[in-house]
Write a structure and sequence with these properties.
The chain is an all-alpha fold. It has one domain. The chain contains 2 helices and no strands. The chain is globular and about 30 Å long.
């Protein structure tokens, strides 16, 4: 499990972390299922 808010911020920055990359390669992670318009910061600096 991983925080969806953190995943969205990392996707906004086009910087998926290692766990996200591994999950996507193994077929467990579907970044298209994230609600990218959720009320989370656009970047880690916000």
């Amino acid at each position: 499990m991983h925080c969806a808010g953190a995943m969205i911020v990392l996707e906004h920055e086009e910087r998926p972390n290692q766990i996200m990359r591994i999950a996507q390669r193994r077929g467990f992670g579907d970044h298209t299922a994230l609600k990218m318009d959720s009320p989370v910061p656009e970047s880690m600096t916000e």
